[in-house]
Amino acid sequence: MKRRGKGIAAAGMAAAIVLGATGCGASSRVQSSSHAVGGNAGAASASANGGVIEYAVQPATDLNWFLPLFTGPTDTLANAQLVYQMFVPLLQLNNNYQIDWKNSIAEKVTYNSSGTVYHIYLNPKWKWSNGQPVTSSDLLFTWNVMKAACAPNAPSPWPYVGVGTGDIPNGIKSVVANGPYEVTVTLKQPTNQQWFIYNGLMQMTPMPAKYMDVKKNMTDELKYLGANGPNMMFDKVVDGPFEPVYAKDRQEWVLKPNPMYAGHKSTVSKLIFLYEGSNESELAALRSGQVNVGYIDPSESAAIPQLKSSGFTVAPEYMFAVFWTEMNMYPASPNSKIFNQLYVRQALMQAINNDEIAQDIYKGYAVPLHGPIPPEPKTQFYDPAVAKLYPYNPSAAKKLLEAHGWQLKNGVMTKGNEKMNFTMIYATGVETTVQEAELIQQELAQIGVKVSLKGMPFDQLISLTSNPKDTNWDLALGSGWIYSGPGYYPSGDGLFNTGAPSGTGYSNPTEDALINATHEPYSSTAETMKHFYQYEFYTAEQLPMLWNVNNATVAVIAPNVHNVLPYYNGAVGIPEMQYWTVSGQ
Hints:
Strand content: 15-25%
Radius of gyration: 23 Å
Number of helices: 15
Number of strands: 25
Structural class: alpha+beta
């Protein structure tokens, strides 16, 4: 799954999610509960000391970027899960979707009543692995790189994925250091304070300036960082709980505890991220002991009783995420003019039976989606009114196309020189995703939409769908968005606004205005949510993506591994692995 973005649809793991609503800096929160069963992964072990954590990466997913500033194609949850073992975020969120000041670089953030000035106070306890302190110079270095990497003409592999999210960089008037541990950020206009903290400041993870800032101009610096981003061993100076040991592409990525880490120090000897070619190979690795923290795909649910009887903990959990079928609406796409028609998107949506997908493919470990906010886990961001928009009705879908001049010719809807003959790419490695692609292919065929399937690894799919100039696909399945950065406040910027770096070409001025309205400061939470629901309903209705299902990810944890679920940190999907322990060594 993607951290901030696109994520493969049935891999990885999740824990309880807690979301907050915002109004002028105030918030109220609701929490869903964890449902671990079997084993003792939720309990600490007094004898736990040493041992190796062997963590299965989502299937067919390469780890290919190791800096805390991501590009569009590299902004995956799998990459982020490793990166944030090496770099401490400026602001770390916990399972309550609240800032965990103890594990954040910042010890506090203050702001004025209009939301235009923010003072960031860094905690002096943090040190880089070379012994030097983490200071305002490191934060300013991150900001300057981020700002330059947002430019459309930034050298490859940039631009930075967070451009536009949190109004980065155009909404920021200045970022200045007031001393070694204080930075002031001034905005150009008033904003909802928590929106900017969660979508703007949250992006600014400090990087070691004295080690990384080595070029005379920013263009060369961007080229330097871009060239070294895919190299984990470039991260020789880190401030996180772990530091790199070695990496073997599409095999394993090995870390060890960082002795200079100022937070809770890990007791394990090594932390290994293991590449998995498929769900089947990962399950076999769990059974053989090669993996001790992994997952199980719903297609393999028959194995759960045996795993439980062997002492494994099995924990199905829902992330605060939305999964979709993307439509290539980039201007270069030859079929973008078809997808740009709302009635076409409505017909496609009505032809897809998400209830069947949830029950038959995901074995009940999924809930149908009707818009950009999932109904599960339960949060006050979800508006139940969206569920009534597009019930499954292939007959109505076909009539809608015919009413706009489309006719069946040789089994394919045709209008003039246009044909609904599309290529759907999908992420391989997860059997449920393959089954979902095949079912959607069959369902769209019922209304005269011919779909040719083309499977590929997840990282390749992300690369294609992130490229506005790529025309080798029309539909894409197997990705989604976890509200865990660059934007954490779930108001759609970076996803559905014009030019969104994680969108696929959808552009609508009304959508832009409604997203922008969620960024304004309001006098109450009720007023804030009123504008949020207006954005949510319109987005659900307009279908910038075809909504699919939010499937639970089912964590599987070996009996001798402890503290995984309490410190998985499901609010952002980035586990605090320094708390995980292994007993019986």
